[in-house]
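Suppose a colleague, Dr. K., hands you the sequence of a protein chain of 183 amino acids and asks what its three-dimensional shape might be. Before reaching for any lab equipment, you can write down a predicted structure in token form. Begin with the sequence itself:
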Amino acid sequence: MKAGILRSSLALGALLSGSLLLPVVGPARAAMNIVTAKTNAGPYALTLAIGPTEHMYTMAEVKSKHIKSGEVMVSGTMVMGGSGGMAGMGGPMPNHHLELHVLQRTTGKTVTKAMVSITVLSPAGKLVERVPIAVMYGIAQGPKDTHFGNNTILKNGKYEIAVQVNQVKASFMVTLGAAPMSM
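The predicted structure, expressed as tokens, is then:
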């Protein structure tokens, strides 16, 4: 119990000092499901994945700090807090990582350069968020894992995820739900 109080006190102190940026780890991260959906659109095979937030680093950080997990940012801006941008302490922290993998259908080769947009809509078509696009890849997987997306704020519920890759459009219907918490 004392360790729990200490962790809570440390987190509260960090929050009040403006330096709280904690990863989702342990049981909370393990309990969060990763939602995936696939479709073919034009010349592309598209895979959408929505899971727990990811830490994002520059290649210089990965090399200098010998980081072994997370995402290497190739281009774009990481969402820090507040919906759709770097709102800092003024908005809620992202709770999901949304990524779109784009492959050439004929070759299976990863598409690393494309104009991509990702828009989150309610089932009724109301705009929830335009996801700021960052191009990144998993540190452990390397450039073959290149994908487009960002950390984002999504409540449990149903969404339409509308994507565009160059001139090709597609959409995915997904449901995000609360994972059962073990006590």
